[in-house]
Amino acid sequence: MPHIPAITGTGVFTPEQVITNAELVTAFNAYAERYNAEHADEIAAGTLEAKAPSSEEFIVKASGIEQRYVVDKSGILDPTRMYPALRQRSDDEPSLMAEMALDAAQKALAMAGRKGEDIDLVICAASNMERAYPAVAVEIQSLIGAGGFAFDMNVACSSATFGIQAAADMVRAGSAHRALVVNPEICSGHLEWRDRDCHFIFGDVATATIIEPADEAKGGYFEIRSTRCATEFSNNIRNNNGFLRRSRPDGVADRRDMQFMQNGRKVFKEVVPMVSQHIMSHLGEEHVEPDQLKRLWLHQANKSMNDFIGRKVLGREPAPGEQPNILQDYANTSSAGSIIAFAKNSEDFAEGDLGLICSFGAGYSVGSVLLERHG
Prior knowledge:
The chain is 32% helix and 22% strand. By secondary structure, the chain is α+β, with helices and mostly antiparallel strands. Helix 4 crosses helix 5 (136-144) and helix 7 packs parallel to helix 8.
């Protein structure tokens, strides 16, 4: 008989260091002034465009973000550097991603009343992996003492919901019994902090989710009623970095397309209706009316996007608490954002309450998870 999969624990690792919008603007504007001075002749000749300054008002208006947590702020705020300064670890040390994931995993395991050896599936689902191989998930499996098997997954900002679907399907089918899905996101490493249009977008974090048979839950749990995933190819969010880089003519040159690239206006115009329709179709297939949802836990990329999606799905302005945002504090944390929103805004659910996690991003990709509270 198939198992009914459920989420029984969540965990969030938050870095200690915070960068406020004021700090970020000060560093960026110092960099821009330095850049413009160094290229004054080209700018005067019209062959190069001067870099415009950023501002706190611009950042909040464009995104709703007020601060972000990062693994290292010193390098990011250095106008002569403008990216994190991370120590090179030896191969005998835990990787940074695994270390972050371990913290989140331990919190999720404690919430579920489980130990590492109870896990027989680990999925590390994130936008950027620290290395090509061995899989970071296998390292995390080793660190927590889990059995079974592990693998990495990358569907950019939708990685967490895609990972939850994969884990839930395997628990339901019996190919895995108890899963850990972790989302360690070191977004500061692939953000272009020297680009005014996006230098404020991302932060670092790690989230973890325990998925196991509902009838084995040691406490209250969220039954995974159903999941839906969809992809559609687009170049409007892209990062061209990869292991073939050194084999190409530009080698390891400091190219703009080797960090986060986005055509923001096209993304907004194309992704918002795609996500709204995806959610409504998912609910329709499950015979759930939007007003039956107590809460939407959406991907945390942009406040305007989430507000639009909430209005489209619910057919009205979301009431306070129906669609919580955490991006004002965490910024965009890629795949982890919707899980942070869920972990921090789900304790008030009562028996039978329904909610939906939805993440979306590069691909394009969108994943949704319909949940029902029990216990």
